[in-house]
Amino acid sequence: PDLHVLSRRPHPRTGKLQNHIVIETVRETIERMHETASGTRGRVIIVDAVDILNVNAANSFLKLLEEPPPSTVLLLVCHRPGAVLATIRSRCAQMTLRPPDTATTARIITPWLDDRPAGEIDALARLAEGSPGRALKLAGTGFLEAYAALLEAASPQPLDAASPQPHARPDPTLRTRAVFDILAGMLDRGDIHLAGDLLRQTLHRLCLAAGGASTGAPLVD
Which residues pair with residue 77 across a beta bridge? Predict the structure, then answer.
């Protein structure tokens, strides 16, 4: 009862996650706060995220922000400050948080992946782009294997820096088909967001390679 999280919820009719936090969710949280015993040592409300409150929800939340219950801390996650009501922003102290770097991410996830090679943990940390939770999710999906396969299928020639001779250029039609086969395999497992990330990161790496820049995350043998 001491921790309350305001976040998006599934739509009551469709079951799909709503695009915004709606006023009903805010009202429920306010009611629970009033129901909590006044003698509690302290309470925390986390809004994830304040920039996706719809207009009615934002106005309702503003009242809570103006008169918070005693011994209550409100933590507002925000990705787009410009989308937040000025009256809400003016009542908050801003703290800028940055994602951990690759080395820190690797240290965070290592206790959960101590059976994995160090090279694989480093690759997961790079691909997770500063999100330890995302790295752990990627570890359980075969993402690295799919990433390597997609790079090989999408590249005009295999990315083999150890080979001094250029490889034969594969047929573009077969290459395109292989790319979609790999993505389709991930979609069949329900990994639509990971499939999108997979394609984005693959294209990013190929563009860097084409321009002669560092390609970032190494592949794991």
Answer: 48
At 172, the pLDDT band (50, 70, 90 cuts) reads low
Q: What residue spans define the domains of the chain? A: 3-89, 102-210
Tell me how far CA of residue 54 lies from CA of 13, 85, 125, 215, in angstroms: 19, 10, 34, 40
Place of tokens 């820096």: 161
Strand order in the sheet with 43-48: 3-7, 43-48, 72-77
Full DSSP string of 192-208: HHHHHHHHHHHHHHHHH
- 3-class DSSP assignment, residue 73: strand
Kindly indicate whether the domain formed by 3-89 is annotated with CATH number 3.40.50.300: yes
Q: Which residue has the higher pLDDT, 203 or 80?
A: 80
Indicate the pTM of the whole model.
Answer: 0.60
